[in-house]
Design a protein that fits this description.
Helix content is 40%, strand content 17%. By secondary structure, the chain is α/β, with parallel strands linked by helices. The longest helix has 17 residues. It is elongated. The chain starts with 5 loop residues before the first strand and ends with a helix. The model has no long low-confidence stretch (mean pLDDT 95).
């Protein structure tokens, strides 16, 4: 084993979404490899509640531009011999740069980039992405890498892809729940679902539009929306106005998704922006066929007609055709799910941890 690394991860969200799950996979994987991994996060965050006290350093989140958090970060790093900071989101990135610039924290910084929209053109954006302490930017997909690279002028800084990972062990040897019985759905009805936060970039409006097209042609399909979010009431109204709300269920948040997935006939993934989209990987691992949009890094997982079916962003007509093909063509379903399960091996959490650890060592040994 290489020399143990003292790494402090910074996370700013109060909620729990894909980025926080990836951070947790990385943190636990590094600990298992003998490294000293700690997490700097808001004391009211979900992440803080899922870490033991000795694994976390908490702060009171005030804003995205938080000098108090930056000072606390710098003080902690100097007092505890931290080798490396890993910033996992935009506000975490800002905090790390403020700690380095104003409070003279000399820790090297690795940055994760998970969103598929361009870096801003302001002076501060250029400054913080090219800061001398940042040594590597790890993008969760190639499409994000292609967006980030043109904005990086600093010669000392590397930009690379390290795909998000899925915990394949969660999906093996499980006992499925009986979702149809639980939700009082007829046994012969097909289930089409999405498992995402009810947020704008997930584009559940296209999900509902697709459901309407399918339900206008057949009455044996139920569309299930798993998740919570700020758009829930608006989406419920939109579903009601569509006239097919009896075929659309808002199931809410579930913590037992590996047990739920085997009940699902199709994952309908309708995002309009997406860093990678690990929900797709969960479906792959569960042998659930996928119909998805070409958002962000999704095509790096869903190869059309090979590991799933792709449509243009917002193209409800094409998605409806894809859903019906996946419901009605068993040979296609089997071919796609077999190839998808094989593809999934490239996106394991263990591989993500291994590649990230390699980058840590490159940064520290240069």
């Amino acid at each position: 084993m290489t020399k143990p690394i003292n790494v402090l991860h910074i996370s700013s969200p109060l909620t729990w979404r894909g980025g926080e799950q990836q951070l947790m996979y990385l943190h636990k994987g590094l600990q298992a490899s003998g490294h000293n991994s700690l997490v700097f996060c808001p004391n009211e965050s979900v992440l803080a509640t899922r870490l033991d006290m000795e694994e976390r350093v908490v702060y009171n989140k005030r804003s995205g531009f938080d000098l108090f958090a930056a000072k606390q970060l710098a003080t902690y790093c100097k007092a505890n011999g931290i080798n490396l900071i890993h910033a996992h989101d935009a506000h975490a990135h800002t905090t790390a740069v403020l700690a380095a610039t104003i409070f003279r924290n000399q820790c090297l910084i690795v940055l994760s980039r998970r969103v598929d929209f361009p870096i801003g053109g302001s002076w501060f954006s250029r400054y913080k992405y090219n800061h001398k302490c940042i040594k590597a930017i790890l993008c969760v997909s190639d499409v994000i890498l292609d967006m980030v690279k043109p904005k990086i002028m600093a010669q000392h800084l590397s930009v690379a892809t390290v795909h998000s990972g899925v915990d394949l062990d969660k999906f093996s040897g499980i006992t499925p729940v009986n979702l149809r019985e639980e939700l009082k759905i007829e046994p012969e009805h097909k289930l089409v679902a999405n498992f995402s936060a009810l947020a704008d970039h997930k584009d559940y409006f296209t999900f509902i539009d697709t459901a309407k097209i399918v339900c206008d042609e057949r009455d044996d399909v139920q569309f299930l929306i798993f998740g919570k979010g700020e758009l829930e009431q608006e989406l419920r109204s939109y579903a009601k106005d569509s006239g097919c709300d009896s075929n659309i269920r808002f199931v809410g948040f579930r913590s037992d998704l590996p047990q739920v997935y085997p009940n699902i006939d199709v994952l309908l993934f309708t995002s309009k922006t997406e860093g990678l989209g690990t929900t797709v990987l969960d479906a792959f691992a569960s042998k659930v066929p996928v119909a998805a949009t070409e958002a962000g890094g999704v095509p790096e997982m869903v190869v059309n007609e090979k590991t799933g079916l792709l449509a243009k962003i917002g193209d409800d007509s094409a998605l409806a055709i894809h859903v019906q093909r996946l419901l009605d063509e068993p040979v296609l379903r089997q071919s796609l799910t077999e190839s998808a399960l094989e593809k999934c091996q490239m996106f394991s959490k263990d591989e993500m941890v291994r590649q990230t650890e390699e980058w840590y060592n490159k940064v520290l040994n240069n």
